[in-house]
Specification:
Layout lengths: L2 H10 L5 E7 L8 H10 L4 E5 L10 H12 L4 H14 L4 E4 L2 H7 L1 H10 L4 E3 L8 H4 L8 E6 L5 H10 L4 E4 L12 H14 L5 E4 L5 H7 L5 E4 L1 H10 L4 H9 L3
Parallel strand pairs: 1-2, 1-8, 2-3, 3-4, 4-5, 5-6, 6-7, 7-8
């Protein structure tokens, strides 16, 4: 059984949604980054998604793109990412998940990547540009203790969602809206309809909703249709506006709606 799924199920069994928080590794600075991540967990996040900085993050909107470029300018590399992950995983039993793109992983070497994930306590990986059709080839060397989470988009039909559900481990990442993360406001009725279709067809996994979740009100709106939510761009924007020291207040506000 997946450690991530078990964690989400434990949270849901108390009548609460799970909250996963995305942070770009090494943003806004290398120094103090793990302190920021720990404060996020302490304030109520149930999981941390560490974004691996990349110069061409296709699924990410301008807010996360900017944070990724800032992290790269800070000198963040894959070694830093695993050092961050190791320190965070040593601090808390809450799952650490890496989110990145195929090219940096292939350059690093998938065997090395998977090995370093296990050694640093990473429980799962999300690679948005690896579709379900390429899952078996790309993840064939993945150890059993490392979950590979797949994304289901609003454009995914029922049969495709079922295939994604069959292959994904940990949870299915339900993309709430077409486009990139943080790209704009979501259309409530249209989004609920889309999420409901995904929910109906995800039967083997937990389902987390991401893209466009930014406020406690958003969480309350989508709570009946998912097992948890993922927040990224809204937090990065908050850090840009108010600085990392104020981050726990933002997280507590989200956690209060769960």
């Amino acid at each position: 059984m997946s450690a991530i799924r078990n964690h989400i199920e434990g949270i849901n069994s108390t009548g609460r949604l799970a909250l996963s928080i995305f942070l770009t590794a090494g943003f806004p600075a290398i120094e103090g980054f793990t302190r920021l991540a720990k404060s996020v967990l302490d304030a109520g996040a149930d999981m941390i998604e560490l974004g691996i900085p990349f110069s061409d993050p296709l699924a990410d909107g301008p807010v996360i793109q900017h944070s990724s470029m800032k992290a790269l300018a800070n000198g963040v590399n894959m070694k830093n990412v695993f050092l961050f992950a190791d320190e965070i995983a040593s601090y808390s039993a809450k799952p650490v998940i890496l989110m990145g793109y195929a090219n940096p992983l292939l350059k690093y070497g998938l065997t090395n990547f998977y090995s370093d994930c296990i050694n640093s306590g990473v429980k799962g990986i999300i690679i948005p540009d690896i579709p379900a059709e390429e899952y078996d080839d790309f993840f064939k060397g993945k150890p059993k203790g490392l979950d590979a989470v797949l994304l289901a988009a609003p454009t995914s039909g029922s049969e495709r969602i079922k295939m994604i559900d069959a292959k994904s481990r940990g949870f299915v990442y339900c993309v709430s809206t077409t486009g990139t993360t943080g790209a704009g406001s979501i259309k409530k009725d249209e989004t609920i309809k889309s999420i409901s279709v995904t929910r109906k067809n995800v039967t083997q996994n937990k389902m987390m909703v991401g893209f466009g979740i930014s406020t406690p009100e958003d969480i309350k709106t989508f709570a009946p249709y998912c097992d948890g939510v993922i927040v990224g761009s809204a937090l990065i924007k908050y850090i840009n506006n108010y600085g990392p020291l104020e981050t726990p207040d933002f997280i507590r506000g989200l956690a209060g709606a769960l």
